[in-house]
Known about the structure:
Chain A: One of its GO terms (molecular function) is oxidoreductase activity. The complex is a heterodimer. By secondary structure, chain A is α+β, with helices and mostly antiparallel strands.
Amino acid sequence: MSIPGAEQLHDVRLHVNGSVHEVQVPARRLLSDALRHDCGLTGTHVGCEHGVCGACTILVDGRPVRSCLMLAVSAVDAEITTVEGLTEDDGSLSPVQQAFSDCHGLQCGFCTPGFLTTITAGLADNPDPSEEEAREMIAGNLCRCTGYQNIVKSVLRAAELGKGDE
Amino acid sequence: MKPAPFAYLRPATLEEALAALAGQQGAKVLAGGQSLVPLLSMRLAAPSMLVDINALPDLGHVTVSPGGAGDGAGEGVRIGALARHADVLASAEATASQPLLAMALSHVAHPTIRNRGTTVGSLVHADAAAEMPMVLRLLDGSVDVASVRGRRTIPAAELFAGPLESTLAHDEIAVEAFFPALGPGAGVAFQEIARRHGDYALVGVAAHVETAGGEVTRARVGFVSVSDVPVVVDVTDALDDPAGAALAELEPADDIHATAAYRAHLVKVLTPRVLADAIHHARQTTTQGRSA
Lengths: 166, 292
């Protein structure tokens, strides 16, 4: 069996969490894979790889996006935030991360990065959600431990923490 | 779950993009990619080249064009090829001009997908299980396409050829969609049943009615996920049994999520409900008057 010729590689400059990553990738490299394998940022988790589960959700220019449904070559002009970029500048947990810790918002933790990024952007849009709105905010993400009750509590707790309540 | 290899081009001008498409029979256009990338990953599609139009200028607009003199012809919402579903949903102007856009868009996948997916891309992807192709068909909208041979406008009635198949030629890019504004005395409504809100509909139904003096003068109903192409049924003469009239023209099919009988049942339940909503909407908007 003949081995196909080497695939063309593209030089791509990715802006991730305030840093620049110069990577060389084939055009078909999914952004989720580029973040994990080429940038070494393994916080972004890969679940279903066709946009259903939300585990790979990252922020692209501040808006939540499925990184498995974007190509790395298509992300050149974007400012990307992964779960690693959510912590505060001094290394302490962000309100959403703290709320997940407070409310037992994770069980196995696999879906957690997608929830953290989704909720971070959701609370930026709506800092004081009702429980109904909190459920709506996370409706595009699946937790296979089905830990939704505590994730909803975490959204509401994160909103409190964001307002400065202790 | 990884795409097969393909060549990739990210042109900076529309002319460059059109030239690339003209020279590559197997090329596909990449805009939002929310339907295309899964097809690539599952290797249901294997284009030789992707022409990524995300860097093209002046295609991100959502604008409302005023009507022409007299009859309001030409009034409606114009959506550029790079306008994301979320941009359309967030446009108060677009919602005021044609409320069915927002009613349907809130069912299009989840907010995260809508942040990237484009409305025009969804139209030319031509999925009969998707909301926006049916909405374009119901409203008699159109799509403007460009190629090296020039531009043309494809009316919605001529856009959908088959399952995931539009009538665009391989070298054409859809640059703009047009959704006509809601006319005086008209009303619209949308409902769908899905396993989880935002998932593909088991059945989705939209209605567009026109009224005069409180009486319905024209009523049409569109269906999602019950056929290979978006279907619209005129039920003006069947207002006492709109579902019966619709089912006479529909052939719901079985799939892994629902039987044909269950889909027919959903058509039976949703059609009169959505039609009543649209009639209510028409009377409400007529009473209140239009803001624009």
